[in-house]
Amino acid sequence: MEVFVNVESPNRIQRENSYPIASSSHSAYDTRGGGSGITTRSSASHTYTDEQEDRKGKRILRSMANDVDNHEDNHGPLSPYSFRSHQNGIGSSSSISTHPPRPKRTRSQQMEPPKPPVQSKTTAKRVGKQRGFPRILSKDEIELFEPIPWIKNVERSVSKYLPQTGDHIVILTEGHRQYLRQSEMKDLFDEKHGVIDRHEPVIFAQVAGMSWQVGPPTYCKLKVSLLRLQNLQQVLSHQAAPNWVSLHREEVIDYSDEDGCPEFIILWERFYASMDVFRNLQVGQAVDAVYDESGTYSGTIASLNQKGLQWRQANLPSPWTYFHVVWDDPNSKPDDMCPWELVPHGENFYDKYDVGPRLTNEEIKRAKDILIWLASSEDFALYVQQVDYYQYPSYLTIVPYPVCLDMVLERLENGFYRSKQGVIDDIELIKKNAMRYNDESSAAHKNAIRMANFFKTRFMNPRMPLSWAKGGGRKKAIVDKSDDEYQEELQREEESEEEPL
User: Fold this and answer.
1) Omega into 217 within 30° of 0, i.e. cis?
2) Cα–Cα distance between 35 and 410 in angstroms, integer?
3) Contact criterion met (CB below 8 Å) for 443 and 362
4) What is the distance between the alpha carbons of residues 130 and 214, in angstroms, rounded to a whole number?
5) Deepest in the core among 289, 376, 485, 490, taking most CB within 10 A?
6) E-strand stretches of 341-469
7) CA-closest candidate to residue 183, choices 122, 266, 123, 116
8) Where along the chain do its domains lie?
């Protein structure tokens, strides 16, 4: 299982000698706050062009929340581990903003997404490395570099797909092609990471790893292992469970959450749940859609898109933007929609599509117990809350995806994780962020390794005690062995990170 944070950091020795140790705020916070980092979206109008390919894919604009967390001084005493109080304005992992909210766009309002900074005309790979160069950000730049709602999300969501290791996913190649044409970040993407198959509209894969790249905005290099669904026809007709067969081929997809760009990666469980919608919706039928959980929109199927690729394996047309929907709102222009974005009018959208795997109650409780134990230890106080980006203005040029123990706990509370590996990956990301930002000889660097080791060993083996082994004897020998195994695994991961995706 691989989760990487690939950020080029030249002049590391100079940075290690000059950058302060990244720290979090330790002021008291309680369980009364319950915010979330859900992306909100307003729909854009459907746009017609002369090119057939450009007609595919909906053009949806998300609200670009510019969240800035206030952080209190980090020299206060450590409080008991719990959610922070939003009323006190204490920094956290949630997308809680101290700025006045921006007005939401209606479905009929089109806005031009902000243009990225002008880059020199170099290769995509070279440009991406330049973005990871550590430097001191101004206050305005920090607001630009701050994590976008997509990666700050702590809720279980049916919005933009946020990958977790082990996910079975569906890649819609027509949408991928359109995304690469429309993306304002395409100059940063590796040209080798293009459309996987230009003749097959639906590709199945499993997430093998991900590499988060420094923004703005943060983007993902998603490593996937391609799969074949051996019994596709039987699965689509609900007559059999999926029989996945590995194609022994890995690919990398570069993408981010961008306004106006198609969402071409879907969790397999949601795709599967939408197949009866795909087969059964008819022209003239009333439907409902939910845009990033910001509200329900009603409309009518006006026509079917028959100009896409043929899904030969299923003997069906491509499901990509198959339905042309005219909305009941007269101010909203028609959209081309995918099956997994629609339900028959009156049907509950969340009951239909919130169908991904979940941790068991026992797994959630065990993970929370370990987190609370870690957060109560003074050695790991730095990792409880998010780093204050204004106190450490170089942080976001080095760390593309900030995570903290508070954020992991909140995600556990909200059923965010689909597997145990997803939780472990977030803890590993806390460790790797601390290792990347802090000097190798610092306590912040070393304690992050200890913390991740402790969490993983205790989470994977519930019989291990929530304590450090003391003294000699068999108990200490077992713990030492688990620590040695973890260090060997850590070394293998670090070696794999040095290899480009």
Assistant:
1) yes
2) 9
3) no
4) 10
5) 289
6) 343-344
7) 116
8) 157-353, 361-467
Token representation of residue 432: 């790797």
The pTM of this model reads 0.74
Separation in Å, CA 369 to CA 365, 375, 456, 472, 482: 6, 10, 13, 26, 20
The vertex-273 CA angle with 268 and 276, nearest 5°, equals 130
> What fold, for 361-467?
Histone Acetyltransferase; Chain A (1.20.920)
Residues 6+ apart with CB under 8 A from 319: 172, 201, 202, 274, 278, 311, 338, 339
CA nearest 149: which of 80, 221, 97? 97
**Model pLDDT for residues 154-176, shown as the tens digit of each residue:** 999 998 999 999 999 999 999 99
pLDDT tens readout for residues 433-474: 999 999 999 999 999 999 999 999 999 999 999 998 665 555
Contacts of 111 (CB under 8 A, 6+ apart): 61, 105, 259
How long, in residues, is the chain? 501
Region of 70 please: left (phi>0), alpha (psi -120 to 50) or beta: beta
Residue 100's contacts (CB-CB under 8 Å, 6 or more residues apart) are none
Cis? peptide before 216, omega within 30° of 0: yes
Nearest CA among 298, 37, 288 for reference residue 157:
37
Q: What is the pLDDT of residue 231?
A: 97
Phi-psi sector, 293: left (phi>0), alpha (psi -120 to 50), beta? left
| Distance in angstroms (rounded) separating the CA atoms of residues 201 and 203 | 7
State pLDDT tens for residues 25-70. Answer: 443 333 333 333 333 333 333 333 444 443 333 434 332 333 333 3
